[in-house]
Amino acid sequence: MPLGLQRFFFASSLYFTVCVSALMVMSPFSLINYVGPAAAVASGLIIIWGAPALFAVIVTTPIFVAFLNKYLLIDVHIAATLIATLAIILQSFWAKQLVHKYVFYRKWLRSRRWLLQFFLRVGPLASLVSAVSALVISVIDNQVMLGSFFYTFMSAWSSSMLVSVFFIPLVLLAQEQELSQLSVSKRFFIVSASVLAGLAVLLLLKTSQDEQQYQRLNRFLQEKQDIERVIKQEVHDVIRQLNSLSALFNASEKVTRAEFEVFSEDILGENTSIRALEWAPIITDEQRTAFELNATKELAFNYVIRERAKGNKLYFAQKREVYAPLYYIYPKENNLEVLGLDVYSNPKQALSMSQVALSEHIVASAPIALAQENFNAPGVLFTKAVYKKNNGEEKNNQFKEAQQLVGFVVAVVQFDKFLNRLVAGSDISVNFQIEDITDPSPHIIYGKSVSRLNRHVDTLTLPIYSRLWQITLAEQQPWFVQDKSWQVWVMLIGGTLGALTLQLLLLMMAAYSIELTQQVNNKTRAVILAKEKSERESLAKTHFLRTLNDEFRVPLQAIRVFIEQFKQKGINNKQVVGINHASNNISQLLDTMMDISEIESGKTIVKEEAFDFYGFLNRVELMLKANNIAQGKSIFLLIDKEVPHFIDSDELRIQKLLIAFTEGAQALFNTDSLRLSVKVHTHLHNRATLFFIYSHQDESTSHESDDAVKALVDEDLASFSTAMTMVKEMSNLMQGSVRLGTLTSGGGMLSTSIKVTVTSQEKQDQHQAQYFDEFTHLD
Asked: Which PROSITE patterns does this entry report, sorted A to Z (predicted)?
């Protein structure tokens, strides 16, 4: 399969998975949830792969929409989907443009400064596109224009930033091989730590979101219970007041209009939903004429019994056996037109008076249109039948003679003002609608149809005195527009900043490690170049010294030949001896210079051979005394008892070291009396450090010489004389050092050290046996 096709399928699968996962994981469900993560993933894929990733986003989008419609049963808004897709593509190309030079030149992780710039560009800056598009999508998806959309902006911005800063660096690291400068352990640590940090942040934010939605649901259910309780309480208050009015008529043989109005005034004086109280006595057809005349006189109103016709018009009631005309109404204002209305003639779908007469309880009517100021508002009639006392006889549940039924008390109730006060006077955050669903066609009692888009919605059914009321509740605003608590903001902002800081620190560690590696490589390269330069200079110096040595030895050899000829002729005066001595010094100086040159060029090899160190010191002592006795100088050798008898080292090199050391000490201290002390410090594995210490107690040494010695430091010793240069180079070659100091008594002290190996007992026995065999052979 071609590489481009492989990238296309991989990008499509990853993009689709991220889109669906974002919708399913993030709470609450909304189309804006997938925009930020999808834009971040698309940005990373387009940055590294370009066209195949872009085609994958375009092709996957309709598949994603079809999946939502078919499997998740979500009616996706096409305009919102198009805006989201365009925003995702725009953010991807903008992010690619912002970080192009960092990615193209592969320098985004090579320094902490470049990493920080890359981090800010690919995260907070590029994510502004998806955040702004989320505002437009939120308006289209939720169909709201009012409210605060700042949380929507911050939520989309946060999700896009977090996915970008965790996803894009990882795909770049895998694509660019930037981690090749890191060890496998560091590489594994950075990748695993980044993945674990991303999962931890996801879990933390998911837990926070679930907690927020749990609190939101609890708040919604609590408000639902409060509304249910308040409505039930209001209905209960209405029924209680109606029962008290019924008890008034039940307890009296006759209730006058004045008594009715006084009693009703006390009831309506409370903050109640009752609009009017009515009394409809039972009147037979024989009583109709007399009743209308008496009512006209008492009410000062042309009172006739009427009934309601089609079109809600009132006309004279037809002849029937029994009437129940409205006789007392409180308040009469705005209610005069219904005086004399026969409630028996009410339509049965609104309220069946036969059902009221047969019931011992209050019966509610279906909602009816009542004039409310300048408009009609739905109202409910609560009606109860009133029977007169029958001298201890029980009342049947069957409809009895008309004389046994006194009449009906009616409460005209409108809940609009009460419910409006409820909504306006509390922190309620839900909209609700109350409907009467007893009949096949529901009747609206209060409110308008509530919006269900991205809101919590619930219904409850209340049995209200032979009627069924259904209350539909929904949040006033979707979650993204609702006001948020400070805990929500702290978790959103704190979690986002914490995750960004954590990922930045992880990548900073990688960048710092690469910086150090680069610095080490630069230093190593510089050291290699310096070493090569030094070797070239050393070779040139060695070549120069060899040439100079050869050129000096030719006239020096001629001088020695002339001295031999002088001696053969018997000329051996003081001048000849001085010339001979000078030629020997020059020859020794040339040998020292050659030794120093060979040591600096690395050609000198230190041997590791066992020899008798005490015998070696005795021979060196004799040699030093023989060389110095003619000059009137003395050397005393002191050997510490801890010094081993046999060591493994280079006997010739140590001899040259001691000879040069003696010469340098004599020149440095400017004295004729020196004491050479030999000490040892033993290490592990038969390793030891030998110390050769020259000190003097010559009182004839001038104070100026002592002051000059004290003014010297260790680094100046090599420049003091050629002999001291030889000592320092030889000591360094044998893993030692040269030190200059002062004794507590005031005298000078010069020491040098070398590393040696203490000869094992087995080697000592072999050496002694070999020496004994050679001595026997000579005998």
From this structure: CHASE (PS50839)
